[in-house]
Amino acid sequence: MSDKRKNTAYLSAPVNAIIEGIYKEKTTIAQILEHGDFGLGTFNRLDGEMVVMDGIVYQMKADGKAYSVSMDEQTPFACVTFFAPDTTDEFPDPPGEDLFSLVQRIIPSDNMLYAIRIDGTFKHVKARSVPPQDNYRPLVEVAREQPEFEYTDISGSMIGFHTPQFLSGVSVPGIHLHFLSDDKTCGGHLLACDPGPISVGIQHVPQLTMGLPMTLDFLTMGFERDTAKDLEEAER
Ligand code: ZN
Fold first, then answer.
1. Ligand 1: distance of its center to the CA of 190 in Å?
2. Residues 140-156: pLDDT tens digits?
3. pLDDT grade, residue 5 (50/70/90)?
4. How many CB atoms lie within 10 A of CB 116?
5. Measured in angstroms, how far is the CA atom of residue 172 from the centroid of ligand 1?
6. For residue range 105-122, what is the model confidence (pLDDT) as tens digits?
7. How does pLDDT run across 171-191, given as a tens digit for each residue?
8. 47 — phi, psi (to 5°)?
9. Ligand 1 center to residue 163 CA distance, Å?
10. How many angstroms does the Cα of residue 178 sit away from the middle of ligand 1?
């Protein structure tokens, strides 16, 4: 693999499409894996949360459980890269700080895209997933009914990205992480976390490739609305 390919993230579609309720696209899981072995996203009909870890795709459905995924399933939004951390920091005894603020503190620049992988034990994890939806129901409404799951003293991995604020139309700005338990049985989109002993791997990703969907829904959608507030509510 060339270094150039390693340091590029691939977005299958701009996040604004799912914010506006376009939950069906034609990108397959097989196509996603051509662009990375690491990342996150969702599935067509917004059927759960996606984790891509070590080249394997996991689907955390609305029951909070992780399922295997076939190569021909499709996604309306996924972000992946080939993960090769520049730095790995060990935190044997994190200073009583929420995981998001800990990661924010060690990220070198707000203006860079970073791939982030955290492995270890977590004292408390609050995650969510979403049940399947029909098109055109804005994500912010769906997220108000999301099932949430809480875990205590659980081992696993957090997989995701830090995205600069100025990319908020194309990806989720700030730190966006999905959780997968060590035994690969449960997880979801991370809402809050109190870390135990962890290691944090960070890779800078200075290039972004993005697909623009060729579906009629996408091509005819009006994107004039400012979706920043919806995104903030739906993803936090
Ligand atoms: Zn998410």
1. 7
2. 888 888 999 999 999 99
3. low
4. 22
5. 8
6. 999 999 999 999 999 999
7. 999 999 999 999 999 999 999
8. -85, 75
9. 13
10. 6
In three-state form (DSSP H/G/I as H, E/B as E, the rest C), the secondary structure along the chain is CCHHHHCEEEECCCCHHHHCCCCCCCEEHHHHHHCCCEEEEECHHHCCEEEEECCEEEEECCCCEEEECCCCCEECCEEEECCCCCEEEEECCCCCCCHHHHHHHHCCCCCCCEEEEEEEEEEEEEEECCCCCCCCCCHHHHHCCCCEEEEEEEEEEEEEEEECHHHCCCCCCEEEEEEEECCCCEEEEEEEEEEEEEEEEEEECCEEEECCCCCHHHHHCCCCCCCHHHHHHHHC
Residue 52, amino acid: V
Q: Scan for tokens 């990319």, then name that residue.
A: 167
Q: How many CA atoms lie within 13 A of 206 on its CB side?
A: 4
Q: The pTM is what?
A: 0.95
| 32 Cα: distance to centroid of ligand 1 (angstroms) | 16
* Cα 189 to ligand 1 centre (Å): 4
> Per the structure, how many domains does the chain have?
1
Residues spanned by the domain of 168: 3-235
Residue for token pair 């623009």: 212
Burial class (CB in 10 A: 0-12, 13-18, 19+), 4: exposed
- Domain CATH for 17: 3.30.1330.80
Compute, in angstroms, the gap from residue 130 CA to the centroid of ligand 1. Answer: 10
pLDDT tops 70 at residue 4:
no
| Residue type at position 197 | P
